[in-house]
Amino acid sequence: QVQLVESGGGLVQAGGSLRLSCAASGSIVKINTMGWYRQAPGKQRELVATITSAGITNYADSVKGQFTISRDNAKNTVYLQMNSLKPEDTAVYYCSADILTVMPLILRTYWGQGTQVTVSS
Predict the structure, then answer these.
(1) Is the separation of the CB atoms in 82 and 92 below 8 Å?
(2) Which distant-in-sequence residues (6+ apart) come within 8 Å of 72 by Cβ?
């Protein structure tokens, strides 16, 4: 069994910052790409950023220069530093991870439960 537990969401004023964390636990052999997605009310879930095990990052155009994704491989944790937040960043943020587990020995994508980020104007 694998769990992804997110933390760090909340309410913040426009221009403020938040740091999201997502820790993976369970029968993990290896974690490949980890990432953050978000879903605003009435919209589809969209990619925010991803990071490979080697540290190669990819960002949605809408957050480039504003958000920074990072990870601590020793802690199986991915972070999302969000600066200069805007009301349009309001969404539920989900972390994801491509994880190879011990039993069964398979690679699949796992998702966190989501954490609400609300940016007030």
Answers:
(1) no
(2) 79
User: Tokens in use for 107?
Assistant: 């690679």
- pLDDT tens-digit profile of 84-107? 999 999 999 999 999 999 888 899
| pLDDT tens, position by position, 47-74 | 999 999 999 999 999 999 999 999 999 9
Query: What is the CB neighbour count within 10 angstroms for residue 9?
Result: 19
Per DSSP, the three-state class of 49 is: strand
The one-letter code for the residue type at 78 is V
**Nearest-angstrom CA–CA distance, 74 and 87:** 34
Distance from C-alpha of 64 to C-alpha of 72, rounded to nearest angstrom: 21
Please enumerate in sequence order all residues whose Cβ is within 8 A of that of 10, keeping only pairs 6 or more positions apart, or say none.
18, 116, 117, 118
HSE, side-chain direction, 13 A CA sphere, residue 57: 17
